[in-house]
Design a protein that fits this description.
2 copies of one chain form a homodimer. Helices cover about 15% and strands about 40% of the residues of chain A. Chain A has helices at about 15-20, 60-70, 85-90, 100, 135-140; strands spanning about 10, 25-30, 35-40, 45, 50-55, 70-75, 105-110, 115-120, 125-130, 140-150, 160, 165-175.
Chain lengths: ~190, ~190
Amino acid sequence: MKNNHEKIDLPVAQVRRYLEPGPIVLVSSASQGARNIMTMGWHTVMEFAPSLIGCVIASGSHSFAMIRASGECVINLPTAALVDAVVEIGNTSGDSVDKFGRFGLTAAPADRIAAPLIRECHANFECRLHDGALIDKYNFFIFEVVKAHVAPVPKHPETLHYTGDGVFMVSGKIISRRGKSKSEML
Amino acid sequence: MKNNHEKIDLPVAQVRRYLEPGPIVLVSSASQGARNIMTMGWHTVMEFAPSLIGCVIASGSHSFAMIRASGECVINLPTAALVDAVVEIGNTSGDSVDKFGRFGLTAAPADRIAAPLIRECHANFECRLHDGALIDKYNFFIFEVVKAHVAPVPKHPETLHYTGDGVFMVSGKIISRRGKSKSEML
């Protein structure tokens, strides 16, 4: 689980750089003295400014209640080194165990919200609920990223992408078509 | 652009296997005798059954008008071999050119909708608009996948994952934690 834990600020409009490729993420939350972590694979960028992320959080989960009550969470980006923690976090309910202690993860204070960052992750995106109109119908939350922290290296971390059935794809090679891309696509 | 173009049916509840990892996709549409293709990176799985996909389609685009008018589209999964077509499609507006002809792509008839499949893609997901409540506010469409076609091999195609700035990540190695994953995560 070696990683670069020193983070720098990322402009929130650039969060898409890490989330648009579709990695599995760890969502940390806090409410009334308790804290929790869940895995999440169903999310999408929705806007650059404000920096909006839409995601589905299962309504039966411990995290759902905490995030709905607090209106906050942190979206944390784990690397492939954390795959076993990611799986175990997905297997475990937060109503019976403190997942930070159980899986050797460090809760670090956020700047703008009360929910904790997961220090061992490559990036941490502090989120506030922006629009809850589709929560009841689809468990769909629209968050605004209000502060973003990323490790400066590596530039392209090995991320985990879930295909279902217990199988992950790990991010591979990088190819650039920058010279061929028109600005509005950048 | 060599690929396996013979497709088999995929149960629509299993579409997450291809979309949850976060690939860039090509969205094909048709309306009033015209057809178009756009690139899309902002999408998420929202439900297994019905098979729901949420996605953002820029309101100024030619595709936005066609998809809103027809209430239909096809989400097509290109492989890394199609990267240059993906970039060029993103660079080009469909009001001035037929992108199928321009980029050497084959429009194949869909089973359940009028919009065409892109034959050269690894998978094709026929979609009908399920909920347009967030279109005006966020350009966010919720589609139901009503029919899914996939090439049977390779099992894990090389997909493209956009990081912005003209740079793509290509899907890499596969790691399984199937034995360690509880059924509800599968």
